[in-house]
Automatic annotation (TrEMBL), chain A:
<keyword id="KW-0614">Plasmid</keyword>
<feature type="domain" description="Thiazole synthase ThiG">
    <location>
        <begin position="3"/>
        <end position="247"/>
    </location>
</feature>
<dbReference type="Pfam" id="PF05690">
    <property type="entry name" value="ThiG"/>
</dbReference>
<dbReference type="InterPro" id="IPR033983">
    <property type="entry name" value="Thiazole_synthase_ThiG"/>
</dbReference>
<feature type="binding site">
    <location>
        <position position="155"/>
    </location>
    <ligand>
        <name>1-deoxy-D-xylulose 5-phosphate</name>
    </ligand>
</feature>
<feature type="active site" description="Schiff-base intermediate with DXP">
    <location>
        <position position="94"/>
    </location>
</feature>
<comment type="subunit">
    <text>Homotetramer. Forms heterodimers with either ThiH or ThiS.</text>
</comment>
<keyword id="KW-0808">Transferase</keyword>
<comment type="function">
    <text>Catalyzes the rearrangement of 1-deoxy-D-xylulose 5-phosphate (DXP) to produce the thiazole phosphate moiety of thiamine. Sulfur is provided by the thiocarboxylate moiety of the carrier protein ThiS. In vitro, sulfur can be provided by H(2)S.</text>
</comment>
TrEMBL record, chain B:
<dbReference type="InterPro" id="IPR016155">
    <property type="entry name" value="Mopterin_synth/thiamin_S_b"/>
</dbReference>
<protein>
    <submittedName>
        <fullName>Sulfur carrier protein ThiS</fullName>
    </submittedName>
</protein>
<dbReference type="InterPro" id="IPR010035">
    <property type="entry name" value="Thi_S"/>
</dbReference>
<dbReference type="InterPro" id="IPR012675">
    <property type="entry name" value="Beta-grasp_dom_sf"/>
</dbReference>
<dbReference type="InterPro" id="IPR003749">
    <property type="entry name" value="ThiS/MoaD-like"/>
</dbReference>
<keyword id="KW-0614">Plasmid</keyword>
<dbReference type="Pfam" id="PF02597">
    <property type="entry name" value="ThiS"/>
</dbReference>
């Protein structure tokens, strides 16, 4: 899988929030095989050196994808992205511009405005978006080379809440790398996204809030791999009536 | 001089953003900065003059999804 020209061996991307401990976070990453970790920027207490968490993440040995989580306007998101680029030394930014407090649904207008400004400024933008086709087109026009449609609202674990919309988005832009980001709760839901032809999944809460985060991380890794293999293997068409798989010829007559 | 740092009012003896960072004990810390909602790169902190009422944000790497 290539994202903005970078070859990645894993199709699983993992967040770094909400783990019971730093050690469990590290173990979850190890067992997930994830090649990308999402991180954020937050206010530093006076005297703080900002170092402890950064050291932990650097030791994971994965690529860093900073986010603009919590931003509710294009301006906030653009400023946060510029701060993140300096802090983490990467042009990658997971662009979140939130438009609704309860669903954390993206603000389409703010998202496009911020994406346009950041792409023009040399960022490689990973927009957290919905399955809306028109919004997707606007984001691509703005210069985005990857789309990250939601499966369901962040942190809900509901899985793929609009399968038709996601399928339609995948079919509309077959060449664009797409990552299903947010809303996944179970490995089977990740496998389903991969079977639909999405290139990767990004999750956090499903792993971090599991009773055994490291085991869940490995479960997701296997599901992502299984789903991708299923997609690449060109699945059979479903049919309504049964069709015997065992040959009828040579059947004994015992009745 | 009274400024706001990360949403809290502070009285700080500093003319520039770099001096404010030093006064707050951040020194060479791995932080990113903004003044009045605009990003200030690390290289520009020493020349960025602060005025009373300025809003300074000092951010560091944290967990994120």
């Amino acid at each position: 899988m290539r994202l903005y020209g970078t070859e990645l061996s894993s199709r699983l991307m993992l967040g770094t929030a909400q783990y019971p401990s730093p050690a469990i976070l590290a173990e979850a990453f190890r067992r997930s095989g994830a090649g990308i970790a999402t991180v954020s920027l937050r206010r530093e207490a006076a005297g703080g050196d900002g170092g402890a968490f950064w050291d932990l993440v650097r030791d994971l040995g994965v690529r860093i994808l900073p986010n603009t989580a919590g931003c509710h306007s294009a301006r906030e998101a653009v400023t946060t992205a510029r701060m993140a680029r300096e802090m983490f030394g990467t042009p990658w930014i997971k662009l979140e511009v939130i438009g609704h407090a309860d669903t954390l649904q993206p603000d389409p207008w703010g998202l496009v405005e911020a994406a346009r400004e950041l792409c023009a400024d040399g960022f490689e933008v990973f927009p957290y978006t919905t399955e809306d086709l028109v919004l997707a087109e606007r984001l691509l026009d703005a210069g985005c080379g990857v789309l990250m449609p939601w499966g369901a609202p962040i942190g809900t674990g509901l899985g793929l809440s609009n399968r038709h919309g996601l399928r339609s988005l995948r079919a509309q832009f077959p060449e664009v790398p797409m990552v299903v980001d947010a809303g996944l709760g179970l490995p089977s839901q990740a496998a389903e996204a991969m079977e639909m032809g999405f290139d990767a999944v990004l999750l956090n809460t499903a792993v971090a809030r599991a009773g055994d985060p490291a085991a869940m991380a490995e479960g997701f890794a296997k599901a992502v791999e299984a789903g991708r293999l299923g997609y690449e293997a060109d699945p059979m068409e479903p049919r309504d009536m049964a069709a015997p798989s065992t040959p009828l010829i040579g059947r004994a007559v015992l009745a | 001089m009274k400024i706001t740092v990360n949403g809290e009012p502070r009285e700080i003896a500093a003319d520039t953003l770099q001096q404010a960072l030093d006064a707050l004990g951040h020194g060479d810390a791995r932080v990113a900065t903004a003044v009045n909602e605009a990003f200030v790169p690390a290289a520009a902190r020493a020349e960025t003059r602060l005025a009373p009422g300025d809003r300074v944000e000092i951010l560091a790497p944290r967990q994120g999804g």
